[in-house]
């Protein structure tokens, strides 16, 4: 038996990359308690909580406008699948959480897309999931953005409103039913 045969197979780990931006970061240092540029392990059965309360949240945002617990992320495996995902839940009673184009009220939750922008107040967070195989834990890798994430993503500029006065959104409106318009109006 060679020395390689006795070694355990190396398991890849799911990593959640999160890039944070706030326009007042340089003045107010609200991200000073976050550990940037170093991967951190989180047990799979723990919830990753982001907010102001250091007794409850592992990821602290030092800002009085942030809720004690702003949002949480739960790592899970889809039923009858080997795919791992994250579920994001808004834990703030006062502030809506926007995940890409979806607005979450208090205690609303959705699956976190593989790449998305999370916004609340003036905060912008680019979240990107790097797939892995480990069932015991996942990793977080935090980064700090110097320019607004929404600006960096080069979102298309708004379309001019046509003479009819009806503007069509660039993004499909999920969960909204179409509006019926009488052609004589």
From TrEMBL:
Compartments reported by the entry: Cytoplasm
Keyword set includes Cytoplasm: yes
Cited InterPro entries: FHA_dom, SMAD_FHA_dom_sf, TIFA
Record key words, sorted: Cytoplasm, Immunity, Innate immunity
GO terms (BP aspect): innate immune response; positive regulation of canonical NF-kappaB signal transduction
Residue ranges occupied by any FHA domain in the UniProt entry: 49-121
GO cellular component, one term: cytoplasm
Family: Belongs to the TIFA family.
Protein name (database record): TRAF-interacting protein with FHA domain-containing protein A
Species of the source: Podilymbus podiceps
Gene transcribed to yield this protein: Tifa
